[in-house]
Amino acid sequence: MQLIQRSLFTLFALFLLAACERAPTLPKLNSHDVIVAFGDSLTHGIGASADTAYPAVLATLTSRTVINAGVPGDTTASALLRLPEVLAEHQPRLVLLCLGGNDMLRQHPAAATENNLRLLVRTIRASGASVVLIGVPEPKLFGGAPDFYARVAEDMQLPLEQDIFNNVLKDNRLKSDSIHANAAGYRVVAERLAEFLKKTGAL
């Protein structure tokens, strides 16, 4: 009897662990739903043409409208100022949030960047849209995405893709310069994001 009880307890513990580790999911997008890619130069597509930036490629891969709302040089603070207008204009169902690189380049305090990301997420959710958080690697050799992306994602129950740009920017064949992808790199980003959206249930 005790053996059976221990076995049941172990199975229950494993079930709870699996539930805790399960990634947050997203509502399924309809064919007419709009996705907004909101970010800085990585979203805008510096290093490639407009039609090879990742939002344009993602639109083709997903058969959805994907708005490129990337502004080169944008920080999390400046993005907060323009976000309400972008949300009002496009009324997205999903926002791909990719910011923080310029904060790091300008050596803004990590705590301020993290707080701004949380405010961005709250503003997006208040509009009725869902959010995918995309991590940006630190601008240094072997620099992955800072820990604050994972903290924001965990605390706010967000799907997080923190490896895409880190992997692309480590491959010289996929870069236009040290901090931007080229057309081939942005295609990889779009392909990975399309798979990620399928995984989370959005597609």
From TrEMBL:
Which PROSITE patterns does its entry note? PROKAR_LIPOPROTEIN (PS51257)
Q: Where is the SGNH hydrolase-type esterase domain?
A: 37-188
Would you indicate the residue range of the signal peptide? 1-18
| Alphabetized SUPFAM superfamilies for the sequence | SGNH hydrolase
Output the Gene3D superfamilies linked to this UniProt entry.
Answer: SGNH hydrolase
Per its UniProt record, what CDD domains does this chain match?
Answer: Lysophospholipase_L1_like
The UniProt keywords, alphabetically, are: Hydrolase, Signal
Q: Which domain of life is it from?
A: Bacteria
Task: Output one GO MF annotation.
Answer: phosphatidylcholine lysophospholipase activity
Q: Which PANTHER family match?
A: SGNH HYDROLASE-TYPE ESTERASE DOMAIN-CONTAINING PROTEIN, THIOESTERASE 1/PROTEASE 1/LYSOPHOSPHOLIPASE L1
The entry's protein name is: Hydrolase GDSL
List the source organism: Thiobacillus denitrificans
Taxonomic lineage is:
Bacteria, Pseudomonadati, Pseudomonadota, Betaproteobacteria, Nitrosomonadales
